[in-house]
Amino acid sequence: MQLTQFLSRRRAQKAESRSPLFSFLYSRKIAPYLFVSPFILSVLVLYLYPFYSAIQMSFQRVLPGQVFYVGLENYERVMNPIFFRALQNTSIYVVLTVILLTVLPLMLALILNHRLTRWSNFFRAAIFIPALTSVVVAGTIFRLIFGESDQALANQVLSFIGFSPLDWRYEAWTAMFLMVAMATWRWLGVNVIYFLAALQTVNNDLTEAASMDGANALQRFRHVTLPAIKPIIVFLVTITIINGFRMFEESYVLWESSSPGYIGLTVVRYIYREGIQNNALGFGAAVGIILLAIIFVVSMIQLYLTGAFKKEH
Amino acid sequence: MKKPLWTLGSCAMMLALPHTAMAQQATELTFWTFQQAHATFFEDAEAQWNEANPDRPIDLNAEVYPYDQVHSNLLLALQSGRGAPDLADIEVRQISNYLQGDVPLVPLNDVVEPVLDEMVTSRFDIYAKDGNYYGVDYHVGASVMYYNQEIMDAAGVNIDDIETWEDYAAAGEQVTANTDAVMTTFESDDIFSFWIMIAQQGSDIFDADGQVSLDNQTNIDTLQFMQDMIHEHGTARAAPGGGHHSEEYFGFMNNGGAASVMMPMWYMGRFIDNMPDLENKMQVRPLPRWTEGGDRSAGMGGTGTVITRQSADTELAKEFLAFAKLTRDANIRLWTVLGFDPIRHEVWDSEEVQADNAYYQFFHEGIFNILLDIRDEIPGVNIHELTPTAQQVIETNTLHTALRTGNRTAEQALTQAADEIRMRMR
Predict the structure, then answer these.
(1) Please, what is the end-to-end C-alpha distance for chain B in angstroms?
(2) Is A266 touching B (CB cutoff 8 A)?
(3) What pLDDT sits at residue A18?
(4) Can you tell me the distance from the alpha carbon of A251 to that of A175, in angstroms, rounded to the nearest whole number?
(5) Integer Cα distance of A251 and B282 in angstroms
């Protein structure tokens, strides 16, 4: 009896002696905020502040030591044929990369996941390696492969199979082909990894039950596998759309100063060209804000259509 | 007891001696450039400065980045007010971006003006604003024609008979008829070929009053002349890879793809570095004339070294810059080390410049006599606030459609470009 009394007294003393900091850290109300604070801080500092600055700058003309407001002038100037050309290029690029970077990786993942595929670990690694390459290095190599010379690799292959050589960096469709090919080459492996992970979550019992009910491979894929990996598909499509609209490097490494006839001009490239190369930071910011709105709307539509907002049953 | 004390004393003195020398600590200066050769040139100047000024040593950090990166990073550093180097190279076509607002560069008048009489002044005007000189160039950039003697001989053309552009075009017919080569290449992704040819006639993108003159008759006729050589006569072609600095072009020219190329004198180094098979085959000559008595060259390209106002010691940076690029010795080294036509014309006929070196060996003797011959025929260009934009428009659309694809006439291409630039001026 004496011992319990002693212990409870001791516990009470200990509680009293806890420092305010201690009780603050252990408070159930505060702790969650404390844990998310690094994230919130980084969002505030690295995203919200630049976002606020960009909005402010889009109404300004910015020169060293001289900043003045110009109202909506920057936004009025954005609506010009070059911007629309950039938007058109970017949109085509987004559509093509979304298709290629979901269909191809899914097919490859299915093949690699199949029990009859041999050396699958080797192929997984091999497909992933381009993602580790610097885009500048990759761009230089692409530029040489598709160089304007009969000796360039791509043109040698073309002549070998009986076609005439192409000026890859000077035609609209070949330029788009180069940018899409580079993006696909780089990101294919990453998406394959996503799909391989998703395929592990497919319930084998369901697959077996379906085959016992007489479903063929295609039906099993459509009615069992596809619904199971749908969240990953939605995720990858969203990411690819956003990355597509943000594309800069592929165009930059192929045409450093500017692309002939704007064939390689993307929206972000246009921001760079106007904001930095032409020293109009305010105008560049206005294009950036418009791009933000476009990505937001497109992503929302896409998420709505794929049912991401519907409540799970 | 006395001896150890004395020894201790002398030891202390010995320790203190290097300390006094250390008191003259080298001032750090940072220099950004996009040309390794320029960095080497300045490092060389640093060593000479330290030898000549042991009381005020400097420690130069020369950093080389790609062309676009140097200009973007520098612009952002100057806009944001921090992070800029002490000295930087700015290419002439980009300079107007840096001369807006409260100019973030240091005026160099007190080191430039005393020697201006010895200099090609037009090379300072392009980096000037409101009477202040902000940059010191590396070269005059006198444009010349580089002929491949072997191909010209095979075609049966005597290059010294080419007086006018008409003669040049006629020689082109002979070259294509008798050899596998074309007469020349024109840049389609870069502005040099076109700009040289119009500047040579006193024309330009912007006139002296700052108005767009891109679509004037001289320019239309010139671009049409270029287009005809490519698409009608087949005597020229758009440069492989888009310009005279691409790997594709170097390979093409090195293998005897073209009989000549028009570029400034500073292009000599590119032959030595990138087209070694042309050694002893190339002849340098003045450009053909457009009219009788017309100019046979034009000052083209250029990179100005500037000092930023963010530099901690602008006075020292300024003196060092003058030492490295304005003195007589410096200008001799601009030729012997870099192969450039120096801005201080007084050295052109000096013994040091005429002495044998790698450039004379690769090409031939008497290169500087050509420069002396055309010294009064090197018109400069007008630099305008919108020069970077104009250059971009011309490179992106005009030359591509007029020269490479040929699906627009010179007049259509230039009118469209001029309108686009005028829109920007509003």
Answers:
(1) 90
(2) no
(3) 64
(4) 9
(5) 36
Q: How many CB atoms lie within 10 A of CB A107?
A: 12
Q: Which of B61, B60, B96 lies closest to B75, judged by CA?
A: B96
The answer for residues whose C-beta is within 8 angstroms of residue B257's C-beta and 6 or more apart is B181, B182, B185, B240
Superfamily of domain B143-299+381-425: Periplasmic binding protein-like II (3.40.190.10)
Interface residue A195 vs chain B (CB under 8 A): no
C-alpha dihedral (A80, A86, A91, A96), degrees to nearest 10: 160
Name the β-bridge partners of B61. Answer: B30
- Closest chain B residue to the Cα of A73, Cα to Cα: B426
CA–CA separation, A186 vs A190, rounded Å?
A: 8
Kindly indicate the confidence band of residue B6, based on its pLDDT and cuts at 50, 70 and 90.
low
B27-140+301-362 homologous superfamily:
Periplasmic binding protein-like II (3.40.190.10)
Position B342 pLDDT exceeds 60 = yes
In this structure, are residues B359 and B272 in contact, taking their beta carbons and an 8 Å threshold? yes
Q: How confident is the model at residue A311 (pLDDT cuts 50, 70, 90)?
A: low
List, in order, residues 6 or more apart from A73 with CB less than 8 Å away.
Answer: none
Nearest CA in chain A to B396: A260
Residue B24: per-residue pLDDT: 67
Structure tokens at B293: 């008595």
Question: Is the per-residue pLDDT at B32 higher than 70?
Answer: yes
Sequence-separated (6 or more) residues with CB below 8 Å from residue B132: B103, B107, B108, B109
Confidence of residue B19 (pLDDT cuts 50, 70, 90): very low
What is the pLDDT averaged over residues A169-186? 92
| Domains identified in chain A and CATH numbers | 21-73 (no CATH), 77-305 (1.10.3720.10)
Q: Under an 8 A CB cutoff, do B400 and A65 touch?
A: no
Chain A residues touching residue B248 (CB < 8 angstroms): 147-149, 152
Q: Which of B352, B349, B355 is nearest to B368 (CA)?
A: B349
Burial B203-227 (b: 16+ CB within 10 A, else e): bbbbeeeeebbbbbeebbbbbbbbb
Does A16 score more than 70 pLDDT?
no
A110 at interface of B, judged by CB pairs closer than 8 A: no
Partner-chain residue, chosen from A63, A144, A260, that has the shortest CB–CB distance to B101: A63
- CA nearest to B241, candidates A121, A152, A187, A313: A152
Contact call for B392 and A281, based on CB within 8 A: no
Q: Is residue B92 a contact partner of residue B126, using CB atoms and an 8 Å limit?
A: yes
Closest in A66, A152, A277 to B392, CB measured:
A277
CA distance A41 to B151: 68
Closest by Cβ to A276, choosing from B66, B72, B81: B72
Residues of B in contact with A148 (CB under 8 A): 240-242, 246, 248
Spatial distance between the Cα atoms of A179 and A294, rounded to a whole number of angstroms? 21
